[in-house]
């Protein structure tokens, strides 16, 4: 079932930086991702893991979704990262470099064991898989359906373009991967996240990319700078016209339900259930960050 | 927006281009390049060098930041990077020399003063309790008496001359504390020098033999960091070491006298003896003065016995002559362990 | 747990804390230096003492250079330094809570 949680912005924070770990909540992203992988140097893996373990337990993170990107389980760091994240109370574990459904299954088995050991409710730790290679993209449908715990899959561009023997450009290089990941997510009824946009000074380019992925249908995007959050939320906000229409659809649906009618109609036309669901989603986004400016 | 700051390490001997740039950068910041530095951390903003800090083993040197970027933050960051690099290289007890007006900044970096040569230079270490703990340890060996002596010897290697010095000093004191220089910059490694000293002084009453430490005649206290700086040259060179002795070590053990052998050969040691009289005896410190006693060397065949002579004879494999200069224990070690290996005589600062 | 070698964790950056641990035979000695000593000195010492007690560190030297870190950062850095400098076999996460 598609979740009602908004996940437009997922802010990356290097797990090794205590100043950022303890203040990032003020930017109000939809989710905060504590990174133990690429943003942390090899010699600080152990210290970052402990910082994140404790930061997760801060009261300020109780009402914001926390995601921890662990190192691959095949490394010596990965299993320990997972212990810290699950025991620390992370809402979601982000698995990097997911190539197959088995990667997710292996992760889930490890999570179950840790939940049982530490007394956390089994099943309460959600998962997301990052797809960063050609095999990952090709296996996206299987990956997206590999676990009931998955809340989404994400495309990670950096490793992917290398694997594809190309480099980041205007988006052409990601065209197939974006479509494939998005379709896989929709088949599995989970969220889809787009790549990081790393040129912090290119606001125009960022907005262009956001517009593209929004229109494609992505739920949101990974972000590395807090300044991008508001830009992204605004771009995802519905227009006043969309909000007005959504209100009418929802009102009609509510009325139909009150009247005990199985069919919703608006201005004499029948409105399908997916349209009602979409209208509810529009209103949720508007409630979260207003109408588009 | 400004370019990102990046930090990385540079081994100057392998990267002449980087080295030249660091040298220029230091000069612009009023510091001269220190040849002893094995590795630097440099900070760049884009291509521009904006900060550096070096390490000679466990001594932090040549810390500088671009005046345009000066301000607590970059300075703190570069010191932080140097400290981490030092730990990675296995050095956890760090020392640093700076002008006394920088003490507050370095306190913010976890470096605390040990001694100050007034107005000139301060020796700092990266612990608020390092020397205090060391002296607490020493004070367990305190002995009663009005006249407590001390001698610091490199004993490279231990000779009959050293034995004579210790006998004479011990005779004139209620108790004598003897330290072996711990720095491994000599032909004979510390463990051998300590062992020979230990067996060499057997039978002498009222003597405690102490292991050496970073706090006496070490790379840290006997630094030549400021040696090249014009005016302060010779003074700072020995003053820090001697002030550490006067202000910390002597009070811990109640030392009233320091014994040295006269130095007819080595200029560095000769100067150290002269400086000792000034820094230990002059009215310049809140710490009580320590009286310096020079003991004339004994001679063999009309020549003062010295360790440097032994090392020279080792180079020529003249073991008959060596036998006349050293006790049996030293002779045994030399003939078993160093007979073939010796290729030439190394010099060292102390006899 | 016992500290068997010199180790360090953390940085001098603002909101962080640099922790140095080293072995010693005597009883545990803890030195705390903080930029916010006046307001938070007591609390920092409590957090440090509590964290070390949970790790069952009874001997050694622990130096804490605080740059205004949150309690959770102090805990994390202390634990990291002790784990780096200690003889640890199999991590008991419950003592890190």
CATH class of chain C: Alpha Beta
> Can you tell me the CATH topology of the largest domain in chain B?
Rossmann fold
What's the overall average pLDDT of chain C, rounded? Answer: 91
Number of helices in the DSSP assignment of chain C:
2
Return the CATH architecture of the largest domain in chain B. 3-Layer(aba) Sandwich
Q: Please, how many helices of chain B?
A: 11
**What Rg of chain C, in angstroms, do the CA atoms define?**
12 Å
The largest sheet of chain B is: 7 strands, mixed
CATH homology superfamily of the largest domain in chain B: HUPs
* Helix and strand composition category of chain C: alpha+beta
Whole-number count of domains of chain B: 2
Radius of gyration of chain B: 22 Å
Unreliable stretches of chain B (pLDDT < 50, length at least 5) are 225-236, 342-351
CATH classification class of the largest domain in chain B: Alpha Beta
Strand content of chain B: 15-25%
Q: If strands are numbered along the chain, what order do they take across the biggest sheet of chain C?
A: 1-2-4-3
Mean pLDDT of chain B: 86
* Order of helical and strand elements of chain C: EEEHEH
Mind explaining what this structure looks like?
The complex is a heterotrimer of chains A (293), B (351) and C (97). Helix content of chain A is 47%, strand content 16%. Chain A has 293 residues and is an alpha/beta fold. Chain A folds into two domains: 9-236, Phosphoenolpyruvate-binding domains (TIM Barrel, Alpha-Beta Barrel); 240-289, no CATH class. In chain A, helix 9 (203-216) links the parallel strand 7 and strand 8 (220-223). The mean pLDDT of chain A is 92. Chain B has two domains: 5-92, 3-Layer(aba) Sandwich (Aminopeptidase), CATH 3.40.630.30; 137-302, Rossmann fold. In chain B, the strands form three sheets. In chain B, strands 1-2-3-4-5-7-6 form a seven-stranded mixed beta sheet, sandwiched between helices. Chain B has a five-stranded parallel beta sheet with strand order 10-9-8-11-12, with helices on both faces. In chain B, strand 9 (175-180), helix 6 and strand 10 form a beta-alpha-beta unit. Mean pLDDT of chain B is 86; it is low at 225-236 and 342-351. With 97 residues, chain C is α+β, with helices and mostly antiparallel strands. Chain C has one domain: Ribosomal Protein S5, domain 2. Chain C has two helices and four strands, in the order E-E-E-H-E-H. Chain C is globular, with a radius of gyration of 12 Å.
């Amino acid at each position: 079932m598609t979740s009602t949680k908004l996940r437009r912005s997922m802010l990356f924070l290097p797990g090794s930086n205590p100043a950022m770990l303890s203040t990032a909540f003020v930017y109000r992203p939809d989710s905060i991702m504590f990174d133990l992988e690429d943003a942390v140097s090899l010699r600080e893996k152990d210290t970052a893991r402990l910082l994140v373990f404790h930061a997760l337990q801060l009261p300020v993170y109780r009402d914001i979704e926390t995601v921890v990107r662990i190192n691959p389980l095949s490394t010596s760091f990965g299993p320990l990262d997972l212990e810290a994240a699950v025991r620390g109370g992370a809402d979601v574990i982000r698995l990097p470099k997911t190539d197959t459904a088995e990667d997710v299954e292996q992760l889930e088995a490890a999570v179950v064991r840790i939940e049982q050991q530490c007394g956390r409710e089994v099943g309460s730790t959600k998962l997301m898989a990052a797809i960063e290679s050609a095999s990952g993209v090709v296996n996206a449908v299987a990956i997206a359906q590999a676990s009931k715990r998955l809340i989404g899959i994400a495309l990670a561009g950096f490793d992917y373009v290398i694997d594809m023997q190309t480099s980041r450009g205007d988006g052409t290089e990601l065209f197939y991967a974006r479509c494939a990941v998005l379709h896989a997510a929709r088949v599995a009824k989970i969220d889809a996240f787009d790549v990081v946009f790393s040129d912090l000074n290119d606001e125009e380019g960022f907005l262009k990319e956001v517009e593209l992925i929004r229109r494609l249908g992505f739920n949101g995007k990974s972000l590395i700078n807090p300044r991008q959050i508001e830009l992204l939320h605004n771009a995802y906000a519905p227009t006043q016209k969309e909000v007005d229409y959504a209100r009418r659809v929802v009102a009609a649906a509510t009325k139909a339900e009150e009247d005990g009618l199985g069919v919703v109609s608006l201005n004499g036309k029948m409105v399908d259930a997916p349209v009602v669901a979409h209208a509810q989603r529009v209103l949720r986004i508007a409630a979260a960050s207003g109408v588009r400016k | 927006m400004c370019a990102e700051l990046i930090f990385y390490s540079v081994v100057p001997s392998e990267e002449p281009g980087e080295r030249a740039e660091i040298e220029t950068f230091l000069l612009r910041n009023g510091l001269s390049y220190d040849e002893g530095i094995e590795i630097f951390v440099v900070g760049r903003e884009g291509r521009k060098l904006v900060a550096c800090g070096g390490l000679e083993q466990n001594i932090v040197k040549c810390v500088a930041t671009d005046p345009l970027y000066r301000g607590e933050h970059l300075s703190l960051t570069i010191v932080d990077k140097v400290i981490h690099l030092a730990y990675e290289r296995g050095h956890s007890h760090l020392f640093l020399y700076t002008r006394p007006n920088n003490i507050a900044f370095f306190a913010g970096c976890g470096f605390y003063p040990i001694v100050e040569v007034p107005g000139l230079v301060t020796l700092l270490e990266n612990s608020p309790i390092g020397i205090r703990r060391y002296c607490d340890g020493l004070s367990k060996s305190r002995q009663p008496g009005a006249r407590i002596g001390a001698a610091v010897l490199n004993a490279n290697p231990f000779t009959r001359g050293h034995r004579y010095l210790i006998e004479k000093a011990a005779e004139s004191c209620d108790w004598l504390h003897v330290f072996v220089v711990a720095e491994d910059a000599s032909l004979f490694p510390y463990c051998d020098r300590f062992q020979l000293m230990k067996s060499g002084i057997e039978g002498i009453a009222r003597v405690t033999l102490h292991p050496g430490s970073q706090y006496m005649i070490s790379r840290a206290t006997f630094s030549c960091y400021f040696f090249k700086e014009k005016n302060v040259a010779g003074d700072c060179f020995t003053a820090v070491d001697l002030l550490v002795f006067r202000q910390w070590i002597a009070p811990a053990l109640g030392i009233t006298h320091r014994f040295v052998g006269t130095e007819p050969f080595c200029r560095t040691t000769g100067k150290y003896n002269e400086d000792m009289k000034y820094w230990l005896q002059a009215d310049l410190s809140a710490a009580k003065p320590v009286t310096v006693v020079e003991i004339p060397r004994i001679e063999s065949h009309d020549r003062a016995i010295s360790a440097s002579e032994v090392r020279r004879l080792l180079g020529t494999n003249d073991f008959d002559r060596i036998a006349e200069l050293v006790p049996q224990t030293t002779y045994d070690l030399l003939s078993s362990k160093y007979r073939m290996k010796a290729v030439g005589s190394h010099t060292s600062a102390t006899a | 747990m016992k500290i068997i070698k010199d180790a360090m964790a953390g940085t001098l950056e603002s909101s962080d804390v640099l922790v140095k641990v080293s072995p010693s035979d005597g009883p545990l000695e803890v030195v705390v230096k903080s930029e916010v000593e006046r307001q938070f000195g007591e609390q920092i010492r409590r957090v440090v003492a509590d964290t070390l007690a949970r790790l069952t560190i009874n001997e050694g030297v622990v130096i804490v250079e605080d740059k205004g870190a949150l309690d959770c950062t102090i805990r994390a850095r202390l634990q990291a330094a002790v784990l780096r400098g200690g003889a640890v076999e199999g991590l008991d996460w419950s003592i890190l809570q």
